Amino acid sequence: MSDKRSASICIAATFLVIFGGQGLALAQTGAASGPSSSFFSILIRGAELPGAIIILMSVAALAIVFEHFRTVRRSTVLPEAELDAARELIESRRYKECVAALQSSPSMFANVLLAALRQGRHGYAAMHEAAEETAGVWTNRLQRRAEYLHILGNLGPLMGLLGTVLGMIRAFGKMQEMHGNYKPEDLAGGIGLALVNTFLGLMLAVLALGFFGICRNRIDALTTQTSAVVIELLESFRPTAIAPGVTPLKPPRVEPDAAPKSGIITPGKTVEPVS
After folding, report:
1. Residue 57 contacts residue 156 (beta carbons within 8 Å)
2. Pairwise CA distance, residues 174 & 166, whole Å
3. CA distance between the termini of the chain
4. Which phi and psi angles does 31 have, rounded to 5°?
5. CA-to-CA distance for 70 and 3, rounded, in angstroms?
6. Which residues contact 70 (CB under 8 A, 6 or more apart)?
7. In this predicted model, which residue has the larger pLDDT, 159 or 173?
8. CA dist 236 → 91, 99, 127, 132 (Å)
C-alpha cells in the first residue's frame, strides 16, 4: 500500500507543479485580457493533431507508470513471507518442500531461488551461476518495460517541434496571403499552434523522463536486493574449506571383482558376492 500511495503522490505532485503553475499564470493573464483566454481553452484551440497525439502519448506514459508501481514493489518482487519460509526450509534441509513451495509463486525471488536449487546436483558454483543468470533476465525484463517511458520522453519534444513547424508554416502562409497587410490576430492561429504543441511536448518529456529515472532506480534497488538475499541463502550449500595441513580422507579403493551385488562396500572387510 505504501508504494501505491507514493506513486499517487508523485503523479499528483507532478501534475500540480506542471499544470497548476502554468494554469494559474495563464488564468491570471486571461483574467486581465478577457474571459475567453483561459488556459485550457488555449490548449484546446492550439493543440490540433500534433497536440492530440502528444496527449495520447502522455496517457500511455501515465499507464506505464501506474503499471510499474502496481507490479514492481517489494511485496511482489521479494515477499517477506516467501523469504522466511524458504530460509526455514533450507535451514532444516527440506529442499523438496522448498522447491514445491517456490514453483507456485510468480515473484522474482521464487524464480531466482528455484533456478538455483534445480542446479543443486552440479554443485555450488552452478547454483550461483544459475541465480545470477535468472536475476539478470528478470532485471532486463523489468527494465524493458520502463524503457517505453524513455522512448515517449524523447518523442515528446519531437512531436512538439512538429507542431511548432506546422504553426510557423501557417503563420508565414497567412502573411503571404495578406500581402503584408496583416494584423496580429491573423497570425495568432499559427503562433498558438506552435507554442501550444511545444508546451505539450516539453511537459510529456518532463513527465516521462522523470518517472523513467524513478522507475529505473526502483528496479535496480529491488533486483539487487533480491539477488543478494538469494546468494545469502545459497551460502548454506557452499562446500566447507579444508584446514591447511589436513589431508582429506580418500575413499576406499574397491576392486571390480570384490563388489557385491548389493552395491554396498564395507571398508576393511571382504564381502563375498551373494549367489
Report:
1. yes
2. 12
3. 71
4. -65, -30
5. 8
6. 4
7. 159
8. 8, 15, 11, 17
